[in-house]
Design brief:
The chain has helices at 16-32, 50-66, 89-93; strands at residues 3-11, 36-39, 44-48, 72-80. The protein is α+β, with helices and mostly antiparallel strands. The protein has a four-stranded antiparallel β-sheet with strand order 2-3-1-4. Helix 1 runs antiparallel to helix 2. It is globular. The mean pLDDT is 95. It comes from Agrilactobacillus yilanensis.
Length: 98
């Protein structure tokens, strides 16, 4: 595992139900990719091979659009380790879990 990505999807709509349905569709897509992931209140973190993660990042706005978003803002943070292993989600957060 040489990368981790935090991705936040913001469907642009005044309809809260539509926003939640769109975000749910994106999370379901991410879950189906077989990656290690963690959903939080503002973003979802995924980890794995850099190229595989970039393919997911490319697809996420399309998934949101197919789910009904008229417009979607997507924010991405990337941690890439070209040599060695990136810190895992667990290594970064386990000590803070309750």
């Amino acid at each position: 595992m040489n990368a981790s990505v935090a991705i936040q999807v913001l469907p642009m709509s005044d309809d809260r139900t539509k926003v939640l349905t769109t975000v749910d569709a994106v999370i379901q897509y991410i879950q189906a990719q077989g990656l290690t992931y963690e959903v939080s209140a503002f973003e979802t973190t995924i980890e794995g091979d850099y190229d595989q993660l970039m393919a997911v990042v490319t697809e996420v706005p399309k998934v949101a659009a197919k789910a009904g978003a008229d417009s979607v803002m997507t924010y991405v943070k990337i941690n890439y380790q070209p040599q060695g292993e990136a810190l895992t989600i667990a290594e970064k957060t386990t000590k803070y879990q309750h």
